[in-house]
Write a structure and sequence with these properties.
Elements lengths: L1 H40 L1 H4 L3 E4 L2 E5 L56 H18 L26 E2 L1 H15 L3 H10 L1 E2 L10 E3 H13 L7
Antiparallel strand pairs: 1-2, 3-5, 4-5
Helix pairs in contact: 4-5
Length: about 230
Amino acid sequence: MNNSVTNTARLLWAGLRALLVLTLVTGVVYPLVVTGIAQGVFPGRANGSEIEADGHVAGSSLIGQAYDLPLKKGQETPEPDLKWFQGRPRNGLGVNSVNTRYKLILSGATNRSADDKDLIDWVTAAKAAVVEDNSTADYRVSPSDVPADAVTSSGSGLDPDISPRYADIQVHRIAERNGLSVAQVRKLVDEHTEGRTLGFLGEPRVNVLELNLALKGLLTKGSTPTR
């Protein structure tokens, strides 16, 4: 009986020691080492890929933002602020219905098939809006010029990038709304167009937040039109 109790106690002590060692290694040492390496090698990415402007964090380069006008009385859906470049549609999972006191950012796709009537209606309306919003007195957007990313949300619904083609069809509108020349705005787009990752992965892209911050900087400098 005494031997049985002694063996049980010895096994329990061995198990407890293993638990303590593994907790220390995997719960303390490993996280500290990984965090230290991340902070030392690529601190920007480790801290959320934050973008700073005017001394404060303007957002993350990994999460898209809305550039909308304030809601009017009785209005449920905000209108886009057309003096800024617009990102992809944000259909995704829709609004937060769990706790309506908070407007949470929800990530996800619509998961609707290509022949879904609601999806077809969304795309049709989005294309008409893109054509109308981006057509100016001296520039007309053709429906065939509207790229897919201008009328569909991404898989996450939070894509921070748009295609260079979508950015290009917004150039004339941005120039007209802000009193800039088309050449000035197109130069901004070109400067913020990134190529394929490693030269072959993905597609060329433009980060909307970074582009709008550059546009804000240009407007702050009081640039004069050069039409």
